[in-house]
Amino acid sequence: MTSLPSFSLLMPVYNGDSAPFLLRAFRSSVIDQSLRPSEVVLVQDGPVSAPLVSAIAELDRTTPVPLKIVILPENRGLSEALTAGLAECSFEVVARMDADDISEPHRFSVQLELIAQGYELVGSGLNEFTETEDGERLGVRRVPPTEPDDIRQYARFHDPFNHPTVVYTKAAVARAGGYQPLGMMEDYWLFARMLASDVRAVNSPDALVRYRVSSGAYKRRGGFKLLRSEWMLQRAFMKTGFTTRAQFLRNIVVRGGYRLVPEPVRRRAYRTMIAGERSVADGASTGS
Asked: For the chain, which domains are there?
């Protein structure tokens, strides 16, 4: 049996996060895992609410694995928070986790097996979910391409990884230039540069993370601020040769136009055009 490497879990937290969601995200990614991380690096990005302070203190008291808490004195944004956290990770392999999502119990055993096979960037499918009075209601299942060649082709128009699901090596991130600020699209920009640097990448088809979708999720994916970020991203893609001029124009028209359509249209379009979902599990409830 292949020996699986030790790994760090990197989790950023900021003032907009929910204390109960953070506690559940941590439990699912550490306590409930069949393969636990060797440490957790939690980055507090600026001042946070009193409930979050209490939740972080509770995690520090009760964690079954070593916990490093990195506190940034002011909110610096995701790219700087993740860069600060990566610098504190003791292990070469790092798993990402957001503070409001849920890892399935077998997530890391599946992904670390792929890392042990020589992959440097490993993502997976995910299930969107919302909270209801009866428990969790599952929505869209987002399954990106799984084969390396398909991932590279897909990346010219879609983000080829569900960002809350990724596990990567620090060396592969450093080779691509690390996280760089790009208006809420830091993950996609990093993944594109990692692919351009010939990273060994793969996605598991399994939905290994449950992705929390709030009532305003699709509203936040639109507007002129996101349009500006889309423009910056597509310009960066073209300037670095990741996309052609024709692909740049297509992406600006389609992806940029998506940012300006009404929210109900955006919701439908996101599932098929932007995120490229392949299967749907609407209406299922976990009852948990």
From this structure: 7-214 (3.90.550.10), 216-280 (no CATH)
